Amino acid sequence: MKQLIIFFILVFISKFGFSQDLKVLITEKKTGKRVVLIAENKTQDTLNVFLMVHAEGYRRSASKPVLKDLPPLSKTPMITLIELTGVPHQYTYELIVNERKTELQFTVNKKANNIERTLANRVVIFSKNDCPKCDLLASLLASKRIQHRDLNIEKDQVLYRQFMVFIEPNLDAQTKIRFPVIWNKDHAIFGYDNVEEVMKELDSEN
User: Fold this and answer.
1) Which value, to the nearest 10 degrees, does the dihedral of the CA atoms of residues 199, 135, 164, 68 take?
2) Are residues 47 and 131 in the same domain?
3) Is the pLDDT at 147 greater than 80, yes or no?
4) Are 33 and 118 in contact (CB under 8 A)?
5) CATH, residue 145
6) What does the pLDDT average to over 18-42?
7) 124 shares a domain with 95
8) Do 28 and 47 lie in a common domain?
9) How many domains is the chain built from?
10) pTM of the predicted protein model
């Protein structure tokens, strides 16, 4: 029997900080080879959610971010995956839930300007909590005095969503989002296996 590996990151924001309560539940509805991921808003409030799915063994590329508003006490289809025949199927996802809907109400131009201004000719590191590779890279960049900006996606969620939308045209079915996500002046690097190699690339352009 095929096993589906599901890993998820839930980040909930309220005006008092991170919440311990489950606000959005991701479930799947499977019909034949079609898998629909559904976000259930279990609160009385409208929530804005950002979903990034990383899938292997499915026909549709799942490397594109999905950003939707969830009405109170509702179930909303987020993304549909179609299984390929004869190959293992697995997916992981990242889910960010934001209660402060007003923080996300940017016009298209303002959104583009915000992220483009942040990335313009810079090295930007998108890190997350409990990520040893993120901590190591930040430490090495600081020790070598390489100018960069370090953004924790659990604290700078709006900019991270804007960034993923900004680079979405360059993502394909083979793209795997690994942390740290590095913006190097004009292109993205998703994680690393050899820190010396990525440091050499970042250092050569400074």
Assistant:
1) 170
2) no
3) yes
4) no
5) 3.40.30.10
6) 81
7) no
8) yes
9) 2
10) 0.50
Instruction: Kindly list the distances between the CA atom of residue 39 and the CA atoms of 24, 151, 162, in Å, as whole numbers in the listed order.
Output: 6, 27, 21
Per DSSP, 115 falls in state H
Say if residue 76's pLDDT is above 90: yes
Q: Residue 206 has what pLDDT?
A: 57
Its domain, for residue 98, covers 8-102
Answer whether residue 86 shows pLDDT above 70: yes
**Which has the higher per-residue pLDDT, 43 or 161?**
43
The reply to whether 146 falls in a domain is yes
b vs e for 121-159, b when ≥16 Cβ sit within 10 Å of the residue's Cβ?
eebbbbbbeebebbeebbebbeeeeeebebbebeebbbb
Q: Which of 148, 155, 117, 186 is nearest to 18 (CA)?
A: 155
Residues 139 and 83 in one domain: no
* Cα(62)–Cα(50) distance, integer angstroms: 13
